[in-house]
Design brief:
mainly alpha; 259 residues; 57% helix; 434 Repressor (Amino-terminal Domain); 2 domains; single chain; globular
């Protein structure tokens, strides 16, 4: 077993934060306690362990694979990389709708049958991403089928962070440090508690962050569920979201109310 002390430290912090002991976690995850202790001591977790561990600690398994520095299994990746533009467009439209409209789109996405994967998902620029906090955040968003443009557009609408597409690439490559504001806003779109994400990335928050806006919470859910859509399905959802907005579709708000 190779060494991965960084992930062991992250998991130790999570357990302490949740006031969860090794035995309790083992029971919850259906894992031998000794396997968990080995990871806490610095062993690299196995794929099976991460899959079982994720729901027990309240994380998506996809995100744990990225934090552990392991390759994301194909079944956790988006079904169709070419759906990314439609995903960006319908999320942008959805967050300008009332709550009922956003929920209608979310239910539609969940109801659509998952089609066969036509090719292996290979996120753009992944070879340039740093093995560190900025790279982890961008990789998590890439694996939610968001391009640089998708990140810039959606974060610019549902959070106070409005950056260029190039800036997100710079963050992913490790040339721009994460700030408390960036961590809080990444957390909102990732659907992760900002305080936990800050601790796992080594960023100190000067104060307890405000909860994400309802628009950001729904954007995170839409982006996550849209990973299972083909390009044709995503285009269908995008057309519906556009029609639900009607004539207002040509207008987009920056930093929606409450963000």
């Amino acid at each position: 077993m190779t060494e991965n002390p960084e992930f062991g430290a992250m998991l130790t912090w999570l357990l302490n934060h949740r006031e969860l002991g090794v035995e309790a976690l083992a029971d919850r995850a259906g894992l031998p306690a000794d396997e968990i202790r080995a990871v806490l001591a610095g062993d690299t977790p196995s794929e099976g362990l991460l899959r079982r561990l994720a729901p027990a600690v309240g994380f998506h398994a996809l995100d744990l694979f990225i934090l552990a520095g392991l390759a994301v299994p194909d079944d956790m990746a988006p079904v169709d990389a070419t759906a990314e533009r439609s995903v960006r467009d319908f999320v942008m439209d959805a967050v300008h709708l009332p709550v009922a409209g956003r929920q209608e789109l979310l239910q539609l996405i969940r109801s659509l049958p998952q089609e066969e994967r036509s090719s292996r998902f290979a996120p753009k620029w992944s070879e340039y991403l740093a093995d560190g906090p900025g790279g982890w955040m961008v990789s998590m968003l890439h694996y939610r089928n968001l391009s640089w443009s998708g990140m810039a557009h959606i974060l610019g609408v549902v959070t106070p962070t409005y950056l260029s597409t190039v800036t997100y690439r710079v963050i992913g490559e490790g040339y721009k440090d994460l700030t408390p504001r960036l961590v809080t806003d990444f957390a909102a779109l990732l659907g992760i508690d900002a305080r936990e994400l800050a601790a796992l990335t080594g960023v100190t928050l000067p104060e307890v962050p405000r909860p994400p806006t309802p628009e950001a919470v729904d954007a995170a859910a839409l982006v996550w569920e849209a990973r299972r859509l083909s390009a044709a399905q995503a285009h269908h959802v995008s057309q519906l979201a556009s029609s639900m907005r009607g004539n207002s579709r040509n207008e987009y708000c920056i930093n929606l109310p409450g963000s």
